[in-house]
Design a protein that fits this description.
By secondary structure, the protein is α+β, with helices and mostly antiparallel strands. It has 2 domains: 242 residues, Conserved hypothetical protein from pyrococcus furiosus pfu- 392566-001, ParB domain (Alpha-Beta Complex); 115 residues, 2-Layer Sandwich (Conserved hypothetical protein from pyrococcus furiosus pfu- 392566-001, domain 2). It is 30% helix and 27% strand. Strands 1, 5, 6, 7, 9, 10, 11, 12 and 13 form a 9-stranded mixed β-sheet that branches. It has a 6-stranded antiparallel β-sheet with strand order 16-18-17-20-15-19, with helices on both faces. It has a two-stranded antiparallel ribbon with strand order 2-4. The chain is globular and about 65 Å long. The protein starts with a strand and ends with a strand.
């Protein structure tokens, strides 16, 4: 069974939490991000988007990450970020604008539990992202956003003695509530309540888990044998797809693409957008301002994302490593239909493929079988704000 541990978090003053914390994904436009970096010296985007402060290649983190380290040092010296005096767990609740609530525990998990598969993964990672995060941890000595883990055991959090430290509404109309658990009895009770959980499953944060493991191997002189995680019951998760946009290196004939796809799929034109797919083995294709419904009719035990990867990404477009190939872009479901249409209609990408999301039961089955899905197979919410609760890697 995986273990969880309390820790002394680095966190913003309550009166500064809205200025410091930053949306970790689904960002506004690049212009909005640049404006935020220029006008808000406190935003944690000075860490997560530090490449925008360096007039150079975003692929060279060793050049721009010193900006991230400087930000952390400045915020600590100004007292905007401060270190807890007692080792604590944090009960974090996020309430969406529609009223849907998700609550779980922020604490530390052992790197060895990840390596020994008690914290189970299900998805491929991109090496460029792994490199960036390892360099961030090495340079700034912090982890500003936890890995999202899921489990299937009932754990009563309401019975724990906890002190509310934050309650605020972010610009995306989500309410954030954080309560600190630092009473020794309550800390022990929480650990005991979660002790019978056989496995944790990575819902979001495969790169963070892999990079903290890599970081620990490369830099043994820091207190980095554990990594920060947000642990929730699986029934609180919302699972959406990442859609695939393709921009082939060589120009393609649209009718030839349709003909190749027709070998594997029944194809019908659709008068309605196929951004949301509800039926298993159905896919949407947006090409030349026309939607097509692709129905896979062969008997196959693969998940839809595996079918799309094997037959379309690799078979039709010969993209053999979708983790690194620039011909493919992953469009988060929450970014919306209009953005997807604009990306294709503006000829930035040639076409888009949409798919039904996996269920978390699918994810568990894949992880328990020690199998790996293609990168960006799931888009799972909640998404946490970076800089809310921060793990600091101190010298041993």
């Amino acid at each position: 069974m995986p273990n969880i541990f309390p820790f002394k978090a680095l966190r913003p003053l309550p009166e500064m939490v809205q200025k410091v914390t930053a949306k970790s994904t689904d960002h506004p436009t690049k212009e909005d991000l640049v404006n935020e970096l220029m006008t808000n010296p406190y935003t944690f985007h000075h860490v997560t988007k530090s490449h925008m402060s360096f007039n150079g290649a975003a692929q060279e983190p060793e050049k721009f990450l010193p900006f991230a380290a400087k930000y952390i040092a400045n915020m600590k010296s100004q007292g905007v970020l401060f270190k807890e005096e007692k080792e604590s767990f944090y009960l974090y609740e996020q309430i969406s604008a529609s009223g849907k609530s998700c609550e779980g525990v922020i604490g530390l998990c052992s790197i060895n539990d990840y390596r020994e598969n008690r914290i189970k993964k299900h998805e491929e990672i991109r090496l460029s992202r792994l490199k960036f995060l390892v360099e961030l941890f090495k340079t700034a000595h912090i982890m500003g956003e936890p890995t999202l883990l899921a489990h299937n055991r009932d754990v009563n959090l309401d019975e724990l003695e906890a002190t509310e430290i934050y309650r605020f509404v972010s610009s995306d109309r989500k309410t954030h509530v954080v309560r600190r658990v630092d009473n020794a009895f309550a800390v022990a009770k929480l650990q005991q309540n979660m002790a019978d959980i056989e496995s944790f499953y990575i819902a979001d944060g495969h790169h963070r888990s892999a990079s903290t493991s890599e970081f620990n191997s490369l830099v043994p002189g820091l207190d980095n044998d554990k990594s920060m995680c947000y642990i929730v019951h699986q029934n609180q998760l919302e699972i959406h797809p990442f859609h695939r946009l393709i921009n082939p290196i060589n120009s393609v004939d649209n009718q030839k693409i349709i003909a190749e796809l027709a070998i594997h799929f029944k194809i019908m034109k659709s008068d309605k957008p196929l951004y949301s797919i509800s039926e298993t083995n159905d896919f949407g294709l947006y090409l030349d301002k026309q939607w097509y419904l692709l129905s896979f009719e062969s008997q196959n035990n693969q998940l839809d994302v595996e079918i799309l990867e094997e037959i379309v990404i690799r078979g039709v477009f010969d993209i053999q490593d979708s983790r690194t190939d620039s011909q493919i872009y992953y469009h988060p479901f929450s970014n919306g239909l209009e953005e997807l249409l604009e990306l294709v209609d503006s000829d930035l990408y040639s076409m888009a493929f949409t798919t039904k999301p996996c269920s978390f039961e699918d994810v568990i089955a894949i992880a328990d079988s020690n199998k790996i899905l293609p990168p960006k197979s799931t888009y799972i919410e909640p998404k946490l704000r970076a800089g809310l609760i921060v793990q600091e890697f101190n010298e041993i």
